[in-house]
Amino acid sequence: MRTRAAVLREPETEYEFVELEVLDPDPGEVLVEMAYAGLCHSDEHLRHANPGGRYPIVGGHEGSGVVQAVGAGVTGVAPGDHVVTSFLPACGHCRFCASGRSNLCDKGATIATGQLPTGTFPYRLDGEPLGGFCMIGAFARHTLLSEFSCVRIDPWLPLDTAALVACSVPTGWGSAVYSGGVRPGDTVVVVGLGGVGVNAVQGAVHAGAMHVIGVDPVAMKREFAESLGATRTVADAGEAVGPARELSRGTGADVVVVTVGKMSGEVYRAASACLGKGGTLVLTALADRPEEGRAVLNGQVTTVFEHRVQGAMFGSCNPFTDIPRLLRLHEEGRLELDRLITRRYSLDEVNQGYRDQAAGETVRGLLDHSR
């Protein structure tokens, strides 16, 4: 099958729009016609570096679509099923899946190259094999996925909002609820109010936080976070230190979630200054390049105040339980998804979408493959 896709040929370039060949599904594989893809900042990081990966590569990992064909042995989905992509596959059998940590599934070892667990590279460009980012490639109209990356959803659910629960919504929501362990009465600080951060706000509110302080330099994002339940917002993490201590009656925040677009040592220092005794600092953000995300931990303070520093991959969520759970919350009016979509783009407008994101004009841009 031939399809169109947005491809990065090498670092520090923009997405190119090309025609690719998509392979037919082998055993354990699923051919999906993509409907929508979120413009996640991780695909912007991919423009700068792909540690452990390769180029060219098809961008996009947050998506939804309809199954077109399945390979032998696939039982979880069938042609015609609506699916949300899981950028972290979950096999259900490795020691991480079996112990309830499917976001660390061993089958995710090749997400940077896009090679499927079967060993297949799903695309051919000028005769050369290539993969999709996170084994997804949601910026292609058609893509070949592992069955471990396909989460079947109810057919009546809108596919546009469903695409958001592939990454940004569970990553943010889970960073507060699971990784951070927010409890009723907590004071929470969320640093960075983009597509992931606003969902950390929603997660903290759902978990019963008494105070949620949102931090972002963009006024539009602060106002939006307040509409989702943030009780106070400020433009800079330094401005959150005082309110965190005041609202916690002197101790500091119970949980600080870092969801900025670009992680750095400076961001770490500012966020950790908001943390109170016994608090948890959740690091969800990534840097453009690994060396730019290095931070210095003050061991003395961490020990004396029993701070916990917790990394968060996919918000510590399980795609096969939490994606349906979040969609049901949305159905019942308990989780905002519709207003998260700020602008919609065609495939040829992906680069413009990322320029809009960098300018602070969107909470979430959405690629609509039908445009």
UniProtKB/TrEMBL annotation:
Query: Record's Gene Ontology CC terms?
Result: cytosol
Identify which cofactors the protein needs according to its UniProt entry.
Zn(2+)
Molecular functions per Gene Ontology: alcohol dehydrogenase (NAD+) activity; S-(hydroxymethyl)glutathione dehydrogenase [NAD(P)+] activity; zinc ion binding
Checking CDD domains in the record gives:
Zn_ADH_class_III
- The superkingdom listed in its UniProt entry is Bacteria
Entry EC number(s): 1.1.1.1
The cross-references to SUPFAM superfamilies, in alphabetical order and at most eight, read:
GroES-like, NAD(P)-binding Rossmann-fold domains
Enoyl reductase (ER) domain boundaries: 12-367
One Pfam family hit: ADH_N
List, alphabetically, the InterPro entries matched: ADH-like_C, ADH-like_N, ADH_Zn_actinomycetes, ADH_Zn_CS, ER, GroES-like_sf, NAD(P)-bd_dom_sf
Q: What general EC class does the enzyme of this chain belong to?
A: oxidoreductase
- Which UniProt keyword terms apply here? Metal-binding, NAD, Oxidoreductase, Zinc
PROSITE patterns assigned to the protein according to its UniProt record, in alphabetical order = ADH_ZINC (PS00059)
Q: Which terms under GO biological process does the entry name?
A: formaldehyde catabolic process
What's the family?
A: Belongs to the zinc-containing alcohol dehydrogenase family.
Q: What is this protein called?
A: Alcohol dehydrogenase B, Zn-dependent
Which organism's genome codes for this protein? Blastococcus saxobsidens (strain DD2)
**Gene encoding this chain?**
adhB
